From TrEMBL:
Lineage per the UniProt record: Bacteria, Pseudomonadati, Planctomycetota, Planctomycetia, Pirellulales
Protein name: protein acetyllysine N-acetyltransferase
Keywords: Hydrolase, Metal-binding, NAD, Transferase, Zinc
Native organism: Aeoliella mucimassa
Gene symbol of the encoding locus: cobB
Enzyme class, first EC level, given as a word: transferase
GO MF annotation list: histone deacetylase activity, NAD-dependent; hydrolase activity; metal ion binding; NAD+ binding
Source species, domain of life: Bacteria
Signal peptide (residue range): none
Deacetylase sirtuin-type domain segment(s): 1-249
InterPro entries: DHS-like_NAD/FAD-binding_dom (IPR029035), NAD-dep_sirtuin_deacylases (IPR050134), Sirtuin (IPR003000), Sirtuin_cat_small_dom_sf (IPR026591), Ssirtuin_cat_dom (IPR026590)
Positions that bind Zn(2+): C128, C131, C153, C156
Enzyme Commission no: 2.3.1.286
Keyword Transferase among record annotations: yes
Active site: H120
Amino acid sequence: MDNAIATQVAEWLAEAEHAVVFTGAGMSTESGIPDFRSPGGIWTRFRTVYYDEFMASPDARREYWHQKAMGHREFADSQPNAGHLVIAKWESAGNIRGVITQNIDGLHQIAGNQQVLELHGTARQIECQDCGARFDAEPLVAQYLETDEAPKCTECPKGRLKHATVSFGQSLPTAVLSKAASWSQEADLMLAIGSSLVVNPAAELPVIAKRSGSRLVIINRDPTPLDTMADLVIPGSIGEVLTAIDQAG
């Protein structure tokens, strides 16, 4: 990576009072978690189970749990990569306000981040769609793999349990999205990392930041629709790029 570019971003990070990191699937590919949309990703291997189907049909719930159990195995043992660790270090040092993420893997929290807005929820928890109770995902996935039956809530009679993630046809959590929009509007620097920036409403957040006067740095392997809006676009390995910026600070 060009040292001058790393130094420039490090200077912007030092100057910023409300820096925000926004991350997408590319953030976690270096931890061995495939982008769900990429060839071989889970969305290319299974039929989509829509939220309304899940709620209405026991067969759809069983199919959903089969898909999620397969996907769970792909990230359950994954660990934060160098990029995650740099971002956690920045939050701990007060360089960034926090992280807005499209990812459901929980790796930012494992790395040490405390302020994380999960736009699409988390696959590390299970949520009852009827009473709102939450449970750790690991034992319930293990239960499904043993019984081949969708687990049921122990806290209420209906008990339709689903990963605490946003399914197709399900709205994003309003409170989280509202807080993410506020962070974006108040940001004076946004680093958009590992996101294709095509999935709305999440992809609107860097636009909100930029239109509110923030600098925008995009770090991604491939071009994005917002590249022309950015102050800097940096292609390459996310771990290497973030490490270079951190070392230049």
